[in-house]
Design goal:
CATH superfamily of the largest domain: Neurotransmitter-gated ion-channel ligand-binding domain
CATH topology of the largest domain: Acetylcholine Binding Protein, Chain: A
CATH class of the largest domain: Mainly Beta
Shape: rod-shaped
Low-confidence stretches: 1-6, 12-29
Largest sheet: 6 strands, mixed
CATH architecture of the largest domain: Distorted Sandwich
Helix content: 40-55%
Distance between the termini: 87 Å
Number of strands: 10
Number of helices: 6
Length: about 300
Amino acid sequence: MKKWLLIGVLTVFFLAVFSQKVMVANAATENPVKVQVGVWLVNVEKVDLSANSYILDFYLWFNYDPSEITLVQIQQFEFINGAPSTYVVDADENRGYLEYRVRGTFIKTFDFSQYPFETHDLAVEIEHKSLDLSQMIFEVDSTSNIDPEANVAGWNLGEFKTSIKEHSYSDKTFSRFVFGLNLKRPILSSFIKTVLPIAVITTISLLAFLMAPQNFAQRITLGVTTLLSATAFHLSLLNGIPPTGYLTFADKMMLSVYVIFLFNLSVSVYITRFVEAKRMDDAVRVCRRSQRFLPVIIIVLIIIQAVAL
């Protein structure tokens, strides 16, 4: 009888201990530690479009409750899209504060579909190495911002954004702090550097339609030389970005230009055949019809470009 009583007491004891541990674990899961993260972006030192990278300089700080999490645990975070250099500016475990100065290269795949009028988001993603969502959650410090004197040569600074995301792996989900800056190309500057030169080259090639049919050699020469200039400009235009598996706005624009050049040279060759056959009336007729048809082609190409945007 005493034996069974002892077994019963031990069973109740172990069940109580196990239940307590389960309750503690559930409480920890339901109430993960909250860590406030803030950032002050000092400057964007370089944007390398061809390498899909950018160099940022910023301060990063953490506010936390030292009774819930230790300073050593806070320090075990990582940058998801970069490996910058960091050094501690301030570390005070008593008041729950840790601050770093961070400078380094970060990587993100840029979208060049609207190049050379595109915008880019320069983002930095931070995540804890071991504490998942059930153990720790990041929160945004509302004082996070960008320095008023920050600038990027050749770009307009857009909106500075901070957010918290959840990132899932095969077995765990982690809280992720993300901040970023939107960069926009100056529209007027981009237009002058990209659209205006090719517009001038194309206009020069179209002067062939004002030449008399008898000057077919000059017409073809003008068309070929301006076509070579346009091709060289196209190649130089794409040197500033990495190879892409899709057409950029610059590619679509140049395709429209090539259509105009093809029409110009085709008409010139067609006129040449009539002139060599001494059929001047037919040559003049083709020249006049092509002059009337040219604006239609240009308007259609402009509409296609507008729809493609």
